Amino acid sequence: MLEEDYAKHETPVISNNSANRNVEDVPVLIPEINGVHAQIIESQKKRLGTKRGFIVVKPNCSIQSYVPPINALMEYEPQTILACTYQAISGSGKTFSECPEILDNVIPFIEGEEEKSENEPLKIWGKIERGKIVNAKNPIITTQCIRVPVTNGHLAAVYVNFKNKSSKEEIINLWENFKAPEIVLNLPSAPKKFLQYFKEDNRPQTNLDRDYENGMGISMGRLREDKVFDYKFVCLSHNTLRGAAGGGVLSAEYLTAK
Predict the structure, then answer these.
(1) Using CA atoms, how far apart are residues 210 and 65, in angstroms rounded to an integer?
(2) What is the pTM assigned to this prediction?
(3) Which of the following is catalytic: 9, 37, 84, 154?
(4) Where do runs of H (alpha helix) occur along the chain?
């Protein structure tokens, strides 16, 4: 495997690729959420037989919109999540000229995306035990991932049930007052305010809000109670900044600071 070869040649690897995301001693890092998983790198080095080389990966772009706002609500113990993502064409590495089939169209399937979107959050919320990351058992996540004719920005419609239901006001307060660890806040690429909530019914919008905090922040809106789930809301992230290159740079900055 190419990334492992680089690591074995004593090169630290920060990757956007999915190849190593399921390897038990490779952290899937969002520094604001699971920076503690960087501790597993020492166990990984022992396996690889390296002194300096290691692999850290960034999670799939599809989960960047809904994992951070759900993470801020972990004290209420989310049990089940339904997330429907509406993903920009840049997530496939294409432009409109390279993807004519998306013009005036919506494509209801992105190969492999739903499996990643359902499984990777559980690793991010997992715990380190005996030299490996053990995935969290909850929440149970089901997803639908859809390609839409947008250049950049992944929007998600999210439905969630909690073990301990809170009020709408408490949820918004937790989002608005979420603070990353101090070590993350001081990094050059880190957003000063990771999460923002819109009171307007027509926000967030991809075109208006994807560049929030230089594309490194997450926007939420339309939080309301639901007839089937406890709550539903809409959230947005920039898939090529927070969801790809920017997220990788932030991880590298975090590991350097550590």
Answers:
(1) 10
(2) 0.97
(3) 154
(4) 2-8, 31-34, 41-48, 67-71, 113-124, 168-176, 182-185, 206-209, 246-257
Q: For residues 248 and 50, what is the distance between their CA atoms, to the nearest angstrom?
A: 22
Mean pLDDT by 10 residues, the chain (258 residues): 95 96 98 98 98 98 98 99 99 94 97 98 98 98 98 99 98 98 98 98 99 99 99 99 98 97
User: pLDDT value at position 69?
Assistant: 99
* The pairing of beta strand 13-15 with beta strand 55-57: parallel
Map out the domains of the chain as residue ranges: 62-247
Q: For residue 171, what pLDDT is reported? A: 99
Is there a contact between 157 and 84 (Cβ–Cβ < 8 Å)?
yes
Tokens found for residue 61: 């772009």
Match 């993350």 to its residue by tokens.
184
Annotation marks residue 238 as catalytic: no
DSSP string, 112-154: THHHHHHHHHHHHT-EEETTEEEPP--SEEEEEEEE-S-SS-E
Active-site annotation holder among 61, 145, 235, 238? 61
Q: Six-digit token pair at 211?
A: 């560049």
- In contact, 160 and 80? CB cutoff 8 Å: yes
Q: Is the dihedral of CA 38, 39, 43, 46 positive or negative?
A: positive
Question: Is residue 77 within 8 Å of residue 164, measured between CB atoms?
Answer: yes
Query: Was domain 62-247 assigned CATH 3.30.360.10?
Result: yes
Give the CA count within 13 Å in the CB-facing half-sphere of 235: 27
61 is catalytic: yes
Query: What's CA 247's distance to the chain center, in Å?
Result: 9
